[in-house]
Amino acid sequence: xSQRVTNISPTWCPGCGNFAILGxxxxxxxxxxxxxxxxxxxxxxxxxxxxxxxxxxxxxxxxHGRGLPPAAGIKLANHNLxxxxxxxxxxxxxxxxxxxxxxxxxxxxxxxxTHDNFLYSLTTGQKSPTTPKGQVTPSTPLxxxxxxxxxxxxxxxxxxxxxxxxxxxxxxxxxxxxxEATKHQGFSLIDVLQPCPTYNKSRPYSWxxxxxxxxxKLGHDPANLEAAWKASYKTDKLPIGVFYQVPRTxxxxxxxxxxxxxLVEADIRQIDxxxxxxxxx
Length: 281
Ligand SMILES: Cc1ncc(C[n+]2csc(CCOP(=O)(O)OP(=O)(O)O)c2C)c(N)n1
Ligand code: SF4
What we know:
Helix content is about 30%, strand content about 15%. The strands form two sheets. An eight-stranded mixed sheet has the order 2-1-3-4-8-7-10-9, with helices on both faces. The protein starts with 17 loop residues before the first helix and ends with a helix. The structure holds thiamine diphosphate and iron/sulfur cluster. The site of iron/sulfur cluster has 11 residues, from loops.
């Protein structure tokens, strides 16, 4: 078994859901028998992104909201690597939402794990795109007036081929989702319900335990786009599991050049760049 974590102790607050997500990542990498040198994690900025210090694998710490483009680039350079993005709801659904749509539509073979604590937590709890309407935060002292962003419905309408929601309070279930998402050929989004006990007092673990329900126990068919869409709009209960999965050609498989070997192994001297270089003269 490969080493999965570094010898640096996580700095998250006691009770933070990020501990459980790190546990699920370790378990999934073990189950998939992915060797350390075969995985690359791209970290966004945030409490979630601080995981960069704790996972023992190749890593790249991106700017806030910009975790997805480097992940797509890494996969393009070497599609033999398993590429993951660790990102918060602020980075993924706020500043970086355009990248989410782009990777979903292109079906870039990247697994995005959004630590959805419904706030900007590293910057002390301001509202994020997923903050429920009416919630009081330091940036919305009278309560937010915006309708919340629906990440699952957005991914579904933008042709994402794997859309799921997990819960940090159920590590075996989250591990299973991660394993399925990693095996999936193409883009995968797992929105993870992540308690932030320091800034999101209205949603402790106990609140989530009362509200989550398991899609597989409800007989949900992940091939049914309409059912996935309806489930993504539920608010009385929060379904977890695979909402939707469909086979689709991953982005890098559209190119003949990448058929036999990854770009990183291609002899670029054989590629004629004369015409491109002439344009800069
Ligand atoms: C381009 C840019 N904008 C804003 C910031 C300030 N900033 C750092 S972390 C953060 C919020 C993080 O929230 P989220 O992405 O939800 O992650 P969390 O901390 O909740 O895991 C912000 C706004 C920044 N570092 N860079
Ligand atoms: S502020 Fe919230 S998300 Fe950040 S480490 Fe503390 S509990 Fe976790």
